[in-house]
Amino acid sequence: MIFAELGLHQSLVDRCISLGFTEPTSIQGQAVPVIISGSDVIGYAATGTGKTAAFLLPILNKLYAENRDGIRALILAPTRELAGQIAGDLEKLDEKKRARSVAIVGGANMRKQTNRLQRGATVVIATPGRLLDHIEGGTINLSRVEMLVLDEADRMLDMGFLPAIRQVISRLPRKRQTMLFSATMSPAIEKIAREYMRQPRVIEVSPRGKAAATVKQTAYLVATTSKIALLLHLLEQESNSRTLIFTRTI
User: Fold this and answer.
1) 112 burial class (0-12, 13-18, 19+ CB within 10 angstroms)?
2) What pLDDT shows up at residue 247?
3) What are phi and psi of 155, to 5 degrees?
4) What CA–CA distance (Å, rounded) separates 240 from 243?
5) pTM for this one?
6) With 0-12 CB in 10 A as exposed, 13-18 as middle and 19+ as buried, what is 204?
7) Chain centroid to CA 2
8) SS3 readout for the chain
9) Could you say which of 7, 101, 175, 236 is the most buried, measured as most Cβ atoms within 10 Å of its Cβ?
10) Residue 173 neighbours by CB distance under 10 Å
11) What is the torsion angle, in degrees rounded to the nearest 10, for the CA atoms of residue 89, residue 106, residue 79 and residue 55?
12) Which residues, other chains included, contact 7 with Cβ-Cβ below 8 Å and sequence gap of 6+?
């Protein structure tokens, strides 16, 4: 399959090729045509499979086809880092600069965000908490949203954002297209997602909870007292310039 077969605007196809994307990933190949058709989508895809472009390309496709004012797409993400990544990917894909995007995240200057919203935005990428601040302050109008994306929904629920998500969705038009993408899902999360979706198409390109093929995983069985020593050994052994360590506090 090639990008030209997905139903995308030719300029988006050309942009994908210019960025070095020779062919769509599995999640992109399955999800993009369904989203373009207007259906709601629940997509299960491991990290590293290109799921961000799977919803950004159809959003841009709609913006290119229909020029309207107001915020037309809302993307919710669990962290400011992920929101920033999505915003960066959107900018790369949008060579025609049709999407006036604003990132609404905590820890950033709210007045600057408000000023950018007042200058006009068609796509808002937000963390739930900061978006609620703007809603309660009357600095954002979501009455024209046509497309809603819940990205990494499992993480958002794990972080306690469900009440905020419910409040945000209550402010959106009932007639909209809703997309949910996540690396992992549970029946409880799926049930919650279906509350806000109309006959969603479920797309699963990899077993839930399984890492992408590009991710190498190794497990070490080690005594608690030896964890630090092993970590230091691995850091010395690996040549990576950056390392991310997850830990649990007690």
Assistant:
1) exposed
2) 75
3) -70, -40
4) 7
5) 0.82
6) middle
7) 23
8) CCHHHCCCCHHHHHHHHHCCCCCCCHHHHHHHHHHHCCCCEEEECCCCCCHHHHHHHHHHHHHHHCCCCCCCEEEECCCHHHHHHHHHHHHHHCCCCCCCEEEECCCCCHHHHHHHHHCCCCEEEECHHHHHHHHHHCCCCCCCCCEEEEECHHHHHHCCCHHHHHHHHHCCCCCCEEEEEECCCCHHHHHHHHHCCCCCEEEECCCCCCCCCCCCCCCCCCCHHHHHHHHHHHHHHCCCCCCCCCCCCC
9) 101
10) 11
11) -40
12) 32, 33, 36, 61
Q: Which amino acid is at 231?
A: L
Residue 250: the pLDDT is 43
Pairing state between β 101-104 and 147-151: unpaired
pLDDT tens, position by position, 136-180: 999 999 999 999 999 998 889 888 899 999 999 999 999 999 999
Q: What is the length of the chain? A: 250
**Is the pLDDT score of 249 beyond 80?**
no
